[in-house]
Amino acid sequence: MTYFILFLSVCFILGGLAVPSNPSPYYAVVGLVLSSVIGCGWLISLGISFVSLVLFLVYLGGMLVVFVYSVSLVADPF
What we know:
Number of domains: 1
Organism: Piprites chloris (Wing-barred manakin)
Structural class: mainly alpha
Number of strands: 0
Family: Belongs to the complex I subunit 6 family.
Radius of gyration: 14 Å
Subcellular location: Mitochondrion membrane
Order of helices and strands: HHH
GO molecular function: NADH dehydrogenase (ubiquinone) activity
Low-confidence stretches: none
Largest sheet: none
Shape: elongated
Enzyme class: translocase
């Protein structure tokens, strides 16, 4: 179990680092979604399933707003 939590924490950090290192917002949002799913899996492995679900729903809503805004900025030629 310790190795599983260590694996999730390393994946969470790598997913967080994938966001600023990608120049395209499409790939950056994939890193954000994977990082949030791994973070919620980390909380579920600790036994905090309700908090994990609430954080995932709130975080997913915030990510979608940021993703739509950044895609609209990239698509706008002016």
